[in-house]
Design goal:
By secondary structure, this protein is α/β, with parallel strands linked by helices. The protein has one domain: Hypothetical Protein Ychn, Chain: A (3-Layer(aba) Sandwich), CATH 3.40.1260.10. Helix content is 30%, strand content 22%. The chain is built from 4 helices and 5 strands.
């Protein structure tokens, strides 16, 4: 069994593209190193998983790559993205509004239980 890394994106604001790429890229690197990686998007970051949002965020001017491109690359490497359930309500979203790379909707108890089990390492952004 590989070690688990949970990356919690809570304060990553989609209005600031420079904040978006690094945690997703780090998740992809960890997955490429054979870690089991979950990215939990909660708070402002939950917006990233709404259809059309990540696709509209150009991470670096002149590069053309969007936040969604980073999410797709990380997903292809094995990263599982999750939307925290309060984010759906906060931003008026439903499950049908979420990008296909999202593995599902989870509540706070889900990732708190994983963290407290001591079997996971956690990074927060």
């Amino acid at each position: 069994m590989s070690q688990k890394l949970i990356i919690i994106m809570a304060n990553t604001d989609p209005r600031h593209p420079e904040e978006v790429a690094a945690p997703i890229f780090q998740a992809m690197v960890a997955a490429s190193m054979n870690y089991d990686v979950d990215v939990i998007c909660t708070g402002l970051a939950a917006k990233l998983l709404k259809n059309g949002v990540a696709q509209s965020i150009v991470v670096k001017a002149g590069d053309g790559r969007t936040a969604h491109d980073f999410i797709k690359d990380a997903h292809a490497a094995g990263v599982k993205f999750h939307c925290c359930s309060p984010g759906l309500d906060l931003f008026g979203m439903c499950v049908d509004d979420i990008i296909s790379e999202c593995h599902g909707v989870v509540g706070a108890a889900h990732f708190i239980e994983q963290i407290m089990s001591g079997e996971s390492k956690v990074l927060t952004y």
